[in-house]
Amino acid sequence: MTLVVRDDASGRQVAVEVLDGGGIVALPTDTVYGIACRLDAEGGVERLFAAKKRPPDKAIMVLVDDLEQVSDVVELTPAAQALRGLWPGGLTLVLPLRPGAPLPPALTAGTETLGVRVPDHPAPRFLARAVGPIPTTSANVSGGPDTRLAADVIAALGDRVDLVLDGGPSPGGVPSTVVDCQSSRPRILREGAIPAARIAAALDTAGVAHDVPA
Predict the structure, then answer these.
(1) Among 4, 18, 77, 94, which residue's beta carbon has the most beta carbons within 10 A?
(2) Is the pLDDT of residue 173 over 80?
(3) According to the model, what pLDDT value does residue 99 have?
(4) Which residues pair with 163 in a beta bridge?
(5) DSSP string of 138-164, one letter each residue
(6) DSSP character string of 65-112
(7) Domain ranges of the chain
(8) What three-state secondary structure class fits 146?
(9) pTM metric for this prediction
(10) Fold of 3-174
């Protein structure tokens, strides 16, 4: 049976213990609920894929407390430096991996990139500070509706999740905007919580050429 705890100081500490034990935690974010594991949990990323029936050729992102948490595994491109000012928030940056980056192959789905986001919500940032970057994907069956309540997570994923942090309704309800920052001209892969106009404006201000419609 899935354990459900309040998203408070004690609940987050329980979540850390579950993550440290190799478990899967569902958690609120500033967009929608997600499910997460430790980056170094054996088979953890594969369990995330299995829990939501996600095709293995679709990479997932990591949530971090700040960009420096992944500075040893990704290249901080000029576009990333320009857009990091939009964090914390609903923005995922797809960044090129450094050679030999020690990441689970399932996380990147065989690509040479990693999606990174600093969420505007204390729960995932607390967990990232405690255990490091946390691989995270939306807490729903792949292709199904996003979840905004703990009860929705249970209904969608059941006991495939070990613990749910119940933080009430997820305030955003819209997935993050995803920006490909690996090339010399960044582009939007999915528009979501952050409008394209804000992305374009930040890149223009930094003098970074791009293919983002204003």
Answers:
(1) 94
(2) no
(3) 93
(4) 3, 25
(5) ESS-TTS----SHHHHHHHHGGGSSEE
(6) SSGGGGTTTB---HHHHHHGGG-SSSEEEEEEBPTT----HHHHTT-S
(7) 3-174
(8) coil
(9) 0.95
(10) DHBP synthase (3.90.870)
